[in-house]
Write a structure and sequence with these properties.
Number of strands: 0
Shape: globular
Largest sheet: none
Distance between the termini: 34 Å
Radius of gyration: 19 Å
Helix content: 55-70%
Order of helices and strands: HHHHHHHHHHHH
Number of helices: 12
Length: 219
């Protein structure tokens, strides 16, 4: 799995380099447009087969692939790699790609759930159900990883609405990243929130791309 993640990350970096070159050729410097292009051209590369591996590669693997996303955002801002992640993501009102990957995973789960007995997907789902019953708690399978992630988000049910599950996870992310406990531990976060008031729990509904970014020209 580690080799596959390395190859996926390398492919994402190549796609990002191609995007930067093309934006330079076309004089595209609007960060919002560049983020839309990233979502269309680079994110699909980083998300290849994410339905299968999102719950299996662990935090380290997720962070390795996510680095390409952060590299892109830091490049637009013109900051170095030591800049706090909550600042980089907060300026663009973006979430880690993990939440998109889980969204795709749940869509795939919906297809499994709704498949009919004459479909190969149905057989795959039945196999996963059997593995969930037979394997002990220390052994992993795809369906158990999905269930564990839902439990971590406080959803607590295996079959749930995709949008509700991801929205709940994103709310948890904002709470853990910008909430009271995070503020108490980080003076950098407290200072940052004085300048960017959208990155607070109280303003979570306005968590979005900062308007000043449209005048950036150092990309």
């Amino acid at each position: 799995m580690a080799i596959a993640i390395d190859k996926l990350t390398a492919a994402g970096k190549k796609a990002l380099f191609a995007l930067r070159c093309r934006c330079n050729d076309l004089s595209i410097t609007n960060p919002k447009v560049m983020c839309q292009l990233f979502n269309s051209l680079v994110r699909p590369v980083l998300s290849y087969a994410c339905e299968a591996w999102t719950g299996c590669i662990g935090v380290k693997g997720l962070q390795q692939v996510e680095q390409v996303h952060r590299m892109f955002l830091r490049g637009i801002l013109g900051v170095n790699k030591t800049t706090s992640t909550f600042v980089v993501l907060g300026e663009f009102g973006r979430y880690p790609l993990e939440y998109f990957w889980w969204q795709q995973t749940f869509k795939y789960y919906d297809r499994l759930w709704e498949s009919t007995p004459n479909r190969l997907l149905y057989c795959a789902y039945q196999t996963q159900l059997q593995m969930l019953i037979v394997l002990n708690d220390n052994q992993q399978c795809w369906l158990r990883n999905v269930q564990l992630w839902l439990d971590d988000q406080g959803v607590g049910v295996l079959y749930t609405n995709v949008k509700c599950a991801v929205a709940s996870a994103q709310a948890s992310y904002l709470e853990s990243t910008y909430g009271e406990q995070a503020r108490a531990k980080s003076s950098k976060l407290r200072t940052y929130q004085l300048m960017n008031t959208s990155c607070t729990i109280e303003s979570r509904y306005s968590y979005a791309h900062q308007s000043y970014l449209r005048v950036i020209t150092n990309v």
